[in-house]
Design brief:
Elements lengths: L1 H18 L5 H12 L2 H32 L3 H25 L15 H13 L4 H12 L6 H25 L3 H31 L3
Helix pairs in contact: 1-6, 1-7, 1-8, 2-3, 2-7, 3-5, 3-6, 3-7, 4-6, 4-8
Length: 210
């Protein structure tokens, strides 16, 4: 029985994990803070962002399961919305791959303690207007109208771990200018690959039967 849901879970992990290869505002804040302040500050900020990912995942999971329980027909609309968002991410990645503009990083300033950076990271993640759409799209890849609750719980657990370790990895590895420069050289190829994956995930979601 577990194998039936494994494909969706792995696809959700893949979409979430590969999305972290294309730095958005959260990741750029971690990189910038590690470079402008120190690794400790960047890691505290990363842990705050990862904790925010856990909260968003839990809210999305309980929200979706409640809606599906009351209105099973809403799953079709949720799938369409998630598929369109993944397609938009794919188009955005392709546009970034075609652009020669280098990435710019900005650190979080004004914090004096590790807890201050953690709190700022949590606030950044929880006030991110795109987070809800991201989580709906990711969760929809694994869940359907009759999917058991443990599948969504597995997605939340796995993606939280990916977020935690991924952001911490950026704080550790990208705390030096040469690492940022090395990523900049490979960025367009990475974005092109991400565009292909997001378009594939969008197709899989819209054509899934569950």
């Amino acid at each position: 029985m577990t194998e039936i849901y494994l494909t969706g879970i792995l696809l959700a992990f893949g979409a979430f994990g590969l999305g972290m290869l294309s730095p958005g505002p959260n990741i750029l804040a971690v990189i910038g803070t590690s470079m402008s302040t120190d690794r400790k500050a960047g890691m505290a900020l990363a842990l705050g962002i990862g904790s925010g990912s856990l909260l968003w995942g839990m809210m999305t999971l309980f929200g979706l399961t409640s809606l599906i329980a009351l209105y099973a027909s809403l799953m079709t609309g949720i799938k369409i919305a998630g598929s369109l968002y993944l397609l938009w991410l794919g188009i955005k990645s392709f546009r970034s791959a075609l652009s020669a503009v280098p990435i710019t990083v900005r650190g979080v300033t004004g914090q004096r303690s590790a807890f201050g950076y953690f709190r700022r990271g949590l606030l950044i993640q929880m006030t991110n207007p795109k987070a809800a759409l991201t989580w709906i799209a990711v969760m929809s890849l694994a869940m359907g109208a009759n999917t058991p609750f443990w599948v969504g719980a597995a997605v939340v657990t796995g993606t939280t771990a990916i977020s935690m370790f991924g952001h911490l990895g950026y704080a550790l590895a990208f705390s030096t200018t040469p690492m940022v420069a090395a990523y900049g050289k490979a960025r367009r190829w990475i974005d092109g690959g991400l565009g292909c994956f997001f378009c594939f995930a969008s197709y899989k979601l819209i054509t899934s039967r569950t």
